[in-house]
User: What shape does this take?
Amino acid sequence: MIRQILLYSALASQAISASAFELSPKSAVIDPQQLEQALEFNQTISKALAGKLKKRLMAAVKSGGLEAGIAQCKIAAPEISQQLQEEHPQVLISAGRTSLKTRNENNQASSWQAEQLQAFDRIKSKGREAGVRYRVLESKGKLAIESMSPIPTQGLCLNCHGSQLNPSLSAKLNELYPNDKATGYSLGDIRGAFVIRSWLQEQ
Ligand code: HEC
Assistant: This one.
């Protein structure tokens, strides 16, 4: 476990032995340059998702108030993910969000993702800034790089994820998400993470 975490956070300065990730012998080593490129690519996608989401959320709240924002939050992430795939047809991508306390259960973290989210919280609680974490995995018969970037809670987010929600908004959220766990956050808390997976091209 410790060895894996070290690899996740290590810089891509040396070839990564795939055996550390329990991969098939066929995929023994990933070229460090390819890994670095994939990580950079994932960051581009992550930043695009973050930027586009916030823009759509702000536009919805401005024109239709917070209730319109709720509807936007539900559809925006999958739509943007689809759009990003269309913009980068050469690479298979999956882009989404997760959290230790989800509002939509479909966003629940895998066990690896939950470990990284806990690490983000630990790093944050020590007053340091959490950075990107990644792993190499085999999925759909191919190697993929999955990376996670922390999402800090900003002022806007508190309207729907904070401790004191407007009662009618809170009622609406309860109606739509009876198992909502995503409230009680404070400014600067790590609300969750963007999760980007990109599949490596055969070389
Ligand atoms: C207008 C209300 C609203 C605002 C403002 C809002 N969110 Fe959300 N958020 C939601 C809803 C609704 C969902 C569930 C979306 C779905 O169904 O997938 C959600 C889901 C999420 C998720 C996915 C994980 C989960 O809990 O299901 C993250 C991460 C998240 N929000 C972060 C943020 C951040 C960061 C901000 C501020 C920049 C923010 N939200 C602002 C309503 C809001």
User: Anything to note?
Assistant: The mean pLDDT is 86.
